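Our consortium's second objective concerns turning raw sequence data into structural hypotheses that experimental partners can test. To show how far this objective has progressed, the report includes one record in full. It was chosen at random from the queue rather than selected for favorable results. The single chain below, 308 residues long, was entered without modification.
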Amino acid sequence: MPAVNSRKAIRAPHRQAQAQAQAAGKSNLNGISTAKFTDQFPSDQPLSDQLSSVSQTTPSQAATTAQSKAFVQQKSLNNKVIIALQQVSKVYGNGSKALNNVNWQIRSGDFWFVTGPSGAGKSTLLKLLYGEEACTEGSIVVNGYNVCKLRGDRLSQLRRNIGIVFQDYKLIPRRTVSENVAFVLWAQGFTRKEIHRRLTPTLKMVGLQHKADSFPHELSGGEQQRVSIARAIVGTPPILLADEPTGNLDPHNSWQVIKILKKLNNVGITVIVTTHDEHLVRLSDYPVVQLRDGRLHQMQDWELGRSM
């Protein structure tokens, strides 16, 4: 795969972001301690290698679907709570209530779908988790951070723990695929050597190593969303939030995106996906909460039309 063109990727507008990140301390590049980072994602094993080993599991190894689901549920119960919402409400200035006394716990390694009609507050819920908006009442703890009390550098540290995938991709138009993915690492103060080390397996994982030098306008919608995913996870965050990641995609590309998110979850990343695509949710085995009238309701398989 062609390497990142350092003359393009390293430009003066980025120097200030790099200097700020370096000042925050290289020993905590992702907002994750070195020991924690190494335990969850070994630095000598590229992400693509971990995903490859997951994808090679045979049906006999997986046993029956029921046994597999039971194993995942037990594994989740053994993991620590990584996100906790307690009596969270969000009321806008016009009196509109997006969330009403919401309680929710998510354990490390979980995969959750959040469903609900347009305007139900799904995007607002995710924005509360990464500090884009503040809750009106209650508390939100994400990976040890009390989000409602964070400002400035502390909020930036939290966001290094979180990868975010947007429905509209939010790619930089005049930057190549490689540059778009590498930018987040450069802004956080990673060395050029480390950026290259992470970039290749990440692009390979989303199937875009052959598009490394392409620009966003040269890509399909599905490819642009895969670039967005690569950018979100190249820093190896423990949490990935995907806000309607399949909203602009056809069924085939939608399923490709979900397959990538599943692989990421299989290597330990906690994934939360908002969607209104009931068919996509029905095809998956992951738990679902529905946001309705400002409250979260956990859905049962029979309500989703899933086979028992």
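The partners drew two points from this record. DSSP finds 14 helices and ten strands in the chain. The two ends are 44 Å apart (CA to CA). Both points have been shared with the crystallography group to help prioritize constructs.
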